[in-house]
Recover the amino acids of this structure.
């Protein structure tokens, strides 16, 4: 054994404490070793390969030449078609995130005000969809949104299409083109952007609810009482106390929704019918039909950088608030 | 004169549980008023109803004559110092203190000026930029006080504000609170379970138990003339000698001994004679004449430095006697037969009601 057994080192000298701390750290490292190995094998190495490929050249037969290193794949990112895919994907991911945030916040807050029993029940309801395969759930939405499906019949029975039709007829300075575009899809949403956003919101809502709930639940409820006692209205209490204190949850939830929405492949494919090309399917195409591995790799690297930036941003802001 | 706070028949039920049971109470303007009782007695619920954080199930609640029964807390001229302080962790001291004024629509600069003054008042000048997490418990307590007082409330409500502090700081803050209250002339309503704290600080005390208001009075009233068995036992220490009223000036104790004790209770009522340890004396058996006394045997003695506390076993109960540690005070070893005696005016008769 080491010096730790020597009687003179048993005293709590600074040297001894430093030694103990080092040993503690070494033990911690050993415990984390399996996880480190896993991350290295299944994240670091594959990602390294992707990075290497992104600088390689596509051969005329669709293979990869690991010799002539260049930035050609990255230069292609400036092309209009690629930029459109990126902008569209970012837009849809952002919209999905905002809708999730607005829908999840009241739900998460309501949960924190209930008894433990009701809370747990609500948590179970949030988690239940995870017990069903992701693909199956997306196909279920396809049935719901299909012609003569439940969505279609509901819209017809309630006469919602006449409302959307009315909005469509408004002059464009009242109803902007974007809104009109979305409204036009309401009666028959399948294979439109509307269906994609619906599907994404449905899939990722739990990822917003859980961190929001965790962060709101931690806030001492006497803080709201104090703000009400100090002449704040309910709205001011929300804006000045609840919202700032739940910011770590808002940021965490937003990243957890934004990141997978940005790279989503299954939902846009099944519910969007592949009509709207988004980043996820674009990358798949490059590795698949187009057989352009270097370009697919460069797109993946860009996606990864966006996600890492968002995550680092989260830890930065989270570090301040927690 | 209108009372600062007036409760008439205030009842609060949570489901089947009656937290506060038909309380009538008037708190005067400018008084230091304590609500005292064991935990769960309804004192905090009563305070929360005055603050507007809970609404009464029944009854009328007036602040300076205005009915406020169901007004939300932001519409009431009162402020609260919370037990946990409830400082906003994302704001520095200055923003915490300025919060109430900003919410009332004051400009940033006006709110800032008054807040700096309030921070000075609680002796934290120079700490405006600190975050609550960087402050000690005692300092956070002062910030909570400044944050409430800066709004110039007509009544300041304090919910066990000293509970989390250690003894030394507690005593310091007790003095500080009393000083602030006298300086500002505002009524302070102070909830505590610490009877000593209530006795030293308050102008008047309300003693509560199980949702009921048992007695309201000055500290002296409550200590000298407790309304019933519970109050006598809860405030300070006492020996309750069980007995029945024989006539207006005699109580027959459980062992058959008759002692002189005035009471206005009906003849035959079962009562207890409250004998405070410091009012009882101890002497060798047979040496007591004329004065009321009971005989027993010393069980053990605790030496406190400034006093000795004897536990004396009577044939039907034990009593505690506190003898000041005067030079030449007689010592009584455990096992010695002794008499516990007192002056006829030193006891007080209490009943159940």
């Amino acid at each position: 054994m080491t010096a730790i057994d020597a009687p003179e080192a048993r005293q709590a000298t600074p040297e001894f404490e430093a030694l103990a701390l080092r040993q503690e750290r070494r033990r911690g490292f050993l415990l984390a070793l399996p996880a480190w190995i896993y991350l290295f094998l299944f994240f670091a190495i594959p990602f390294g390969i992707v990075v290497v490929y992104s600088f390689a050249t596509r051969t005329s037969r669709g293979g990869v030449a690991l010799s002539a290193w260049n930035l050609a794949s990255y230069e292609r990112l400036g092309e209009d078609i690629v930029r459109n895919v990126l902008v569209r994907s970012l837009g849809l991911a952002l919209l999905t995130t905002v809708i999730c945030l607005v829908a999840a916040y009241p739900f998460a807050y309501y949960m924190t005000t209930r008894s433990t029993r009701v809370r747990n029940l609500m948590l179970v309801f949030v988690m239940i969809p995870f017990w069903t395969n992701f693909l199956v759930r997306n196909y279920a939405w396809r049935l719901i949104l299909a012609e003569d499906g439940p969505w279609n019949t509901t819209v017809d029975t309630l006469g919602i299409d006449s409302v959307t039709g009315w909005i469509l007829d408004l002059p464009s300075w009242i109803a902007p083109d974007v809104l009109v575009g979305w409204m036009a899809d309401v009666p028959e949403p399948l294979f439109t952007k509307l269906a994609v956003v619906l599907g994404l919101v449905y899939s990722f809502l739990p990822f917003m609810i859980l961190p929001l709930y965790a962060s709101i639940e931690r806030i001492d409820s006497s803080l709201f009482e104090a703000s009400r006692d100090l002449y704040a209205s309910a709205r001011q209490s929300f804006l000045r106390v609840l919202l700032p204190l739940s910011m770590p949850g808002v940021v965490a939830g937003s990243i957890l929704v934004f990141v997978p929405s940005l790279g989503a492949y299954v939902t846009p494919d099944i519910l969007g019918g592949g009509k709207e090309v988004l980043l996820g399917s674009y990358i798949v195409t490059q590795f698949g039909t187009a057989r352009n591995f270097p370009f697919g790799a460069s797109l993946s690297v860009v996606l990864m950088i966006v996600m890492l930036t968002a995550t680092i941003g989260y830890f930065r802001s989270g570090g301040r608030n927690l | 004169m209108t009372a600062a706070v007036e409760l008439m028949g205030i009842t609060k039920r949570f489901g089947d549980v009656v937290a506060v049971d038909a309380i009538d109470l008037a708190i005067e303007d400018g008084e230091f008023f304590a609500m005292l009782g064991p935990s769960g007695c309804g004192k905090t619920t009563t305070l929360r109803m005055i603050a507007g954080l809970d609404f009464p199930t029944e009854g009328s609640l007036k602040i300076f004559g205005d009915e406020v029964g169901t007004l939300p807390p932001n519409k009431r001229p009162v402020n609260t110092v919370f037990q946990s302080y409830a400082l906003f962790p994302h704001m520095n001291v200055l923003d915490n203190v300025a919060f109430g004024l900003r919410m009332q629509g004051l400009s940033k600069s006006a709110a800032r000026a008054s807040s700096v003054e309030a921070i000075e008042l609680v002796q934290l000048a120079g700490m405006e930029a600190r975050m609550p997490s960087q402050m000690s418990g005692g300092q956070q307590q002062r910030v909570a006080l400044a944050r409430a007082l800066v709004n110039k409330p007509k009544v300041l409500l304090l919910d066990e504000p000293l509970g989390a502090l250690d003894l030394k700081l507690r005593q310091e803050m007790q003095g500080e609170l009393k000083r602030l209250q006298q300086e500002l002339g505002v009524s302070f309503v102070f909830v505590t379970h610490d009877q000593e704290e209530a006795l030293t600080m308050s102008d008047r005390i309300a003693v509560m138990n199980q949702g009921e208001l048992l007695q309201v009075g000055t500290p002296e009233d409550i200590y000298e003339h407790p309304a019933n068995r519970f109050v006598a036992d809860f405030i300070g220490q006492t020996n309750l000698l069980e007995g029945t009223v024989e006539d207006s000036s005699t109580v027959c104790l459980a062992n058959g001994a008759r002692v002189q004790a005035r009471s206005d209770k009906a003849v035959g009522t079962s009562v207890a004679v409250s004998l405070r340890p410091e009012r009882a004396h101890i002497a060798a058996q047979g040496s007591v004449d004329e004065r009321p006394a009971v005989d027993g045997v010393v069980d053990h003695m605790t030496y406190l430095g400034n006093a000795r506390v004897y536990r004396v076993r009577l044939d039907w109960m034990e009593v505690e006697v506190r003898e000041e540690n005067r030079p030449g005070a007689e010592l009584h070893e455990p096992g010695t037969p002794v008499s516990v005696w007192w002056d006829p005016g030193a006891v007080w008769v209490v009943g159940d009601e």
About this structure: The first strand of chain A starts at residue 57 and ends at 58. Strands of chain A lie at 57-58, 64-65. Chain A has a mean pLDDT of 86. The two ends of chain A are 41 Å apart (CA to CA).
